[in-house]
């Protein structure tokens, strides 16, 4: 196969910016392409519109070193790159549940039209099954007749907060192709990972597309599974953390993603399980993924439960009472508040008339864009001072290590809901706090 030297990445959002920087780190000449000129300017300076540890440094390193640049000019990369990665978004459609394919479709046809040099297009976006085959047809219709272009599918499994690490040292590489030449091209792109014996799964388009959504559906199901048991232990007694530890010791089950609490959020899991259900329904297979509707419902009930616990703790009257909400990103090490359980809880309490004070080490800015009327504090201290209730909704390290002594003389009344089950109940109860978790009994009950 032709040696790959020049790589383009179309779409410089979370996935694309990370992929572009990591491809440069692997030694390729990389150009990131985006339709938004402002994004191009700020990315070139290493300024990212989101928080991702290590990524700004990696971008700056390779922009300075000349391996990485950003452009809005598709024609330029069409004449230059050997491999083009498509990394644009597939958001949930407005007012619907399916994936919005406009960006992927437009990027693919615009790219195919711009390419004047034989190349491989590689889809990385999370898409409904059947997309790659459809795009391959679109490419064949759109491309210049004299150019050899083909399509491979290579889903991405990166986690926010670990995006660089997950991209440079993935658990596995999944490659959907229609011929061995394209597979060989990708083997040379990922030679470094192959040298480390990273599992290489070579398959067809459909499997490659489905691996991604199956992985996310499984993770979501695992979380809702344990949260469904939390609903049971809340009623009959029992301890969800001990239960998770005990079943997690069975290596067939595993302890990861069995942390009960306020549930999953973010830009991927909620959207992906809904898009998957919508896609299989289109295929006449509604029944196959119906359980994912339950997974979604269990997850959303945990948010309502957390709000209900706040009402219970405050004797069913939240109006005008100060509630400190600690953590409103969907998870730690991120500034992402998309579909965030913590922000949802805060907004519901705010709408019910509570005086909500939010503190998050990274997320205040993004949350304020969505709910500008809620109070955002720059310090934990401000948020908890005078609070009648503290709710921990994202397990940032600085919250996990909180002790009653840190808060005793700041709050008005000693009440805390630990909606991530990360604090030690005994410490708080012993210091005179009303202490509540999800799926666990109070030690004094
Ligand atoms: C996820 C997948 O992990 C990743 O492989 C995929 O590429 C994108 O989607 P991400 O959205 O970054 O990544 O977050 P993840 O770490 O998976 O957490 C998702 C949500 O589940 C968070 O809100 C987290 O708080 C929640 N969660 C996770 C739990 O509630 N309990 C758990 O045990 C684990």
TrEMBL record:
BP GO terms, sorted: polysaccharide biosynthetic process; UDP-glucuronate biosynthetic process
Binding-site list for substrate: 157-160, 212, 257-261, 265, 331
GO molecular function, one term: NAD binding
Enzyme class: oxidoreductase
Keyword hit for Nucleotide-binding: no
Record-annotated UDP-glucose/GDP-mannose dehydrogenase C-terminal domain positions: 324-425
Pathway participation: Nucleotide-sugar biosynthesis; UDP-alpha-D-glucuronate biosynthesis; UDP-alpha-D-glucuronate from UDP-alpha-D-glucose: step 1/1
Amino-acid positions noted as binding NAD(+) in the UniProt annotation, renumbered to this chain: 34, 39, 90, 126, 160, 271, 338
Keywords: NAD, Oxidoreductase
Catalysed reactions, semicolon-separated: UDP-alpha-D-glucose + 2 NAD(+) + H2O = UDP-alpha-D-glucuronate + 2 NADH + 3 H(+)
EC number per UniProt: 1.1.1.22
SMART domains, sorted: UDPG_MGDP_dh_C
Short name of one Pfam family: UDPG_MGDP_dh
Active site location: 268 (nucleophile)
Family: Belongs to the UDP-glucose/GDP-mannose dehydrogenase family.
Protein name: UDP-glucose 6-dehydrogenase
UniProt source species: Nesterenkonia natronophila
Lineage: Bacteria, Bacillati, Actinomycetota, Actinomycetes, Micrococcales
